[in-house]
Amino acid sequence: MQVVLLRVGIDTGSGGIHSPLFSDGSFEYIPIPDCFGSKGVNKRKYGNTRGKAGRRLADYFPEARRERVFGQSVHFDPEFETFTYGDPTYPKASLGQLSEGSLLVFYAGLKGWDFGCPPALYIIGYFEVARAGLATSFSQTELAGMFRNNFHVMHHEVFEEQKERLVLVFTTGSNAAGSVGTTYSMPTRLYKFQVPIRARILGDM
Known about the structure:
Low-confidence stretches: 175-186, 198-205
Number of domains: 1
Radius of gyration: 17 Å
Shape: globular
Mean pLDDT: 87
Order of helices and strands: EEEHEEEEHHHEE
């Protein structure tokens, strides 16, 4: 079994903020902007998408930026509805070699929202791998079923441009409805409460 740590979500280098951390230890996972093409392709935007806490994602941006980001498309990947992950970049190519039972552990930069807490890194969830490989190694039926909610597959123009280098990860929770909880019974999940990594963010790590 292999364990791979992956940083995900918005940060000061991609989106300009950190995801909010609440005083009870819970958090909101805010995805990075969708920058495919000039304006993005996803219908979900910071202004029309609400998080677990019920707020629009745009509301977590500084007030001076909210109008500007309201119509910005978002890039949900990893996605925590059917629990899949995709990445077309060269540094992530080795993920296609992950074996069944390996773990993708996701961490993100969070900053106190309703209390004073400086930006730091936190583990926010993990996937247990069922199958991984290049997009071209999956059949059309598998892509349409297993990865129907994955950003890189659901948008035809994105998939056609990236498929030869796109790594996809299908997980043990991908066929389940998926719920957020605090027990450790689910092998694939997005945490409700973060797990701190003992590193404070200086600039952007």
